[in-house]
Design brief:
With 261 residues, the chain is an alpha+beta fold. The protein contains seven helices and twelve strands. Helix 2 crosses helix 3 and helix 3 packs across helix 4. The radius of gyration is 20 Å and the shape is elongated.
Amino acid sequence: MVKPLRVEFCGEWYSVDSGAPFSIGRESDLTIDDNPYLHRTFLRLYEDFGLWWIANVGNLLSATVSDSTGTVQAWLAPGAKLPIVFQTMHVMFSAGSSTYDFTIHAEDDFYNTSLSASHEGGTTTILPVTLTTSQRLLIVALSESILTQAVPGRGAIPSSAEAAARLGWSMTTFNRKLDNVCSKLDKLGVAGLRGGAGHLATNRRARLVEYAVATRLVSLDDVMLLDRAAEESRLSASGAPAGNTADSTDAVGAVDGEQSP
């Protein structure tokens, strides 16, 4: 018999024993929210073959799971399942404009992730991709609500128009840079950022936020960049000198491989 799991969501703790599956969703053992975009039962934790598993039992939504260090990340599509082999596993998913996250704590640590995490001291992260200045700003603008929440659990993803306004960019600039960063990550093998036949997925903003936060691609320390960019954009619009405006981030992007319109 496997050892019990503990699930942490919005500061509350739930115990999961091996006797019966534990469901997560809109109307489940762990009721996330009354969000109509969320499945009644979306995820399920259960024991099989001497291991704990997490399964996506929904038919529309996907989840992003990662270890405590953010160096291991997987996309749990509908119908998929994964063994829980890390002592700490973070789970993020989006339903409508809301993004939710919870943490699974296991007593077994098959890969000694807690030991490797303690050696890192929580201060060193190996980034899977190099971002331009403007690409980082875009991701932080979309992730701001998630990164700044006092208690992890629920955050809102802004619309493209809201994120563009936060940055002081035009919609043309914002959409072009969103295309560029999604294309860059897609080429590196990040699933869920592009649809079939070369068409961008409609939920790419949510998936981009999930991936960036789960892998520590952006952090709370990056949020200050938004206020700086907004102020520089305001100064640029008023004709005052500015060190790095939204237009200058366009120039940086062009040098680093982004195409200007």
